[in-house]
Sequence to fold (344 residues):
Amino acid sequence: MRIALIAPPFIAVPPEEYGGTELFVGHLAEGLKKSGAEVVLYANGDSKAEMDVRWIYPHTEWPIKVPTHAWLREINHVSWAVADACKHCNVIHVQSAPALAFSRFVDRPFVLTLHDSYSPELSAFYAHYPQAYYVSISDAQRKNEVMPRLRTIHHGIQLDQYKLVEKKQQYLSFIGRIAPIKGTHIAIDVAQRTGIPLKIAGEVQPAHREYFERKVKPQLDGKLVEYIGPADLAAKNELLGNSLAMLFPIQWNEPFGLVMVEAMACGTPVLASPGGSVPEVVQNGVSGYICRTVREMVKRVGDLPLDPQKIRAYVAENFSTEQMVNKYLALYEEAAGVKQKQIA
Fold:
């Protein structure tokens, strides 16, 4: 079976720094390749995945500066990729809702992984494409949708890319977009209440520059609160692996939150607010704690009796690339088989 994986054209696969969707596509593509499946990856020319990578846009362009220009770029990229994939591939797997529109013009089954949070407008759009196969990345995300061909497949990671660190250093970590919904300001509050230093890594996107300048930057002193900028894989390993805990004080319904799994893969517990997927990813008392208030999170920082080896084992058992790949392969085979029967 040959599978077309169509990623957005804005960020390389795998990403050098920011890029949750691209990180997922990278892990999935590599896992599919190891399983023996043929993969054609449509991304941009900066992508370094070791497989057949096809592109029309040579370089990463991120962050997005003009949304209209970005939309045109994505439509051009996806339409070209779908046209090419129809010549070579059995299944087309896309990552954005607009790509579904091209399923009307081709005779290949489409799979869409839902990376966005719920919105009525998106759900209304999906209703026009009941023949597509949809993947929610958490049960929390799935409960809001009604598409007939919908299942949950949790993200997985390549565990060997993350280093287990058993002896932690005296600081907390935060990795994510610097945005109100990610709760960067709450992580700072936890650090200030506990007196334990906080290292922040992540991207400041143009839409949230004012938030950074007003809520985050005034608190940066390089001692108690430090901002180190975007983090690549090596920096993630260093930052997450050595920290006492990663703070994940989200203020929205997180669709999945892959960084939680990355932290736990390093043997680092996650202290998270309970929104969206969090109860599916963090197991209380095993891989971290779900904290309903800032006060509870502060209390947990001072009491972290969790074993780094057991935290990593929890990831291996529940969020491995192999598990994710096997579930996607079953989906691809189902989709391709149904399509062949329809054609016959």
